[in-house]
Amino acid sequence: MSDRDFEHKKIEIEYQKLQLDKLKAKNDSRFFNKHFGVIVTGIISFFAVLISYYQVRLAQEDVQVKRLQSIESQQRYNKMLEDENREKENAKRQKEKILRLELTQFIITNYEAIASKDQIKRDLILELMVTQFPSDLVNNFVKNLKENSRNLKLSTSQTTFKKFDIAQDIEEESSRTWYRDEDGDGYGNSGDYTKSDTQPDGYVQNNLDPYDQNEKAFPGQTAFFTINRGDGSFDYNGDGLEEKQFTTIGQCIESCGSSSQGWSSFIPNPGQQGQWLADCDFKPLRGGCNREFEARTQGGR
């Protein structure tokens, strides 16, 4: 084959190749035009599914937020009721204590009439007591009067009336009663006391210590502790309760952009460990809102 024939053959092959490329492009164009609607529909369907997924996720987040808000609201309401009941109970006890003290003073002041052998004089003073004090206190006094009439005494030097149940917690002289302060926190043990004209070492005048084996347990304590005070109780401030340090349920807010820190699902008691919601992060590849928890021990006081 001559060079001329070779070049001619080469050009012919190039031409055929070009024709095949044109035909292929034409077929591709026909395929795209034929299936354009299907492709567009598929893309739209994909994004519709994606949008629906995130709408469902957001709706679920909204339901959870409302549920947690409802739980938190109920907890606040329950705490408010507990506080109100505690205040009422404290007011009731204080009122009863004042009445007991007033009745004791009344008995001391009118001792001669109460202890008189004159029945009329005794009846008159008892009728006066009924008009000034609750009947249950008076009845208790009359009962004790009958049972302890021989032991009824009045100390003229100390002006102390001690023989009745209604006055059994009144000491002879507050300045002469000293209470043991074993932990050195300045508050004494009501069950460990002595009488003295001068202050003994390790004793104080008050008896307000809720637990005399721990210097951190005293009236008005504001700190919270994760370890009990020594007897299994977390009542560090002596109010008769075990107040929890953290009482909220955590939640992810603002479409998982931020978090309201709190417990994962339930509120543990003081000294118990629970899961604490520390942060929220939106991660689509992990199913949306990613919650980060950490272990935490509930405090109490």
Walkthrough of the structure:
This protein is α+β, with helices and mostly antiparallel strands and 301 residues long. The protein has a domain at 81-170. Helices cover 46% and strands 13% of the residues. The chain contains 4 helices and 8 strands; from the N terminus they run H-H-H-H-E-E-E-E-E-E-E-E. It has helices spanning 3-109, 111-114, 119-132, 135-148; strands spanning 177-180, 193-195, 203-204, 251-253, 258-260, 262-263, 273-283, 288-297. A hairpin with a 4-residue loop joins strand 7 and strand 8 (288-297).
Please supply descriptive tags for the structure shown above.
single chain; 301 residues; alpha+beta; three-stranded antiparallel β-sheet
Sequence-ordered SSE layout with sheet pairings:
Layout: H1 3-109, H2 111-114, H3 119-132, H4 135-148, E1 177-180, E2 193-195, E3 203-204, E4 251-253, E5 258-260, E6 262-263, E7 273-283, E8 288-297
Antiparallel strand pairs: 1-2, 1-3, 4-5, 6-7, 7-8
* Strands side by side in the biggest sheet: 2-1-3
Alpha carbon gyration radius: 43 Å
**End-to-end Cα distance:** 108 Å
Strand content: 5-15%
SSE string, helix = H, strand = E?
HHHHEEEEEEEE
What are the low-pLDDT stretches, counting only 5+ consecutive residues below 50?
Answer: 150-174
Which word captures the global form?
Answer: rod-shaped
Helical coverage, percent range: 40-55%
Note the total helix count.
4
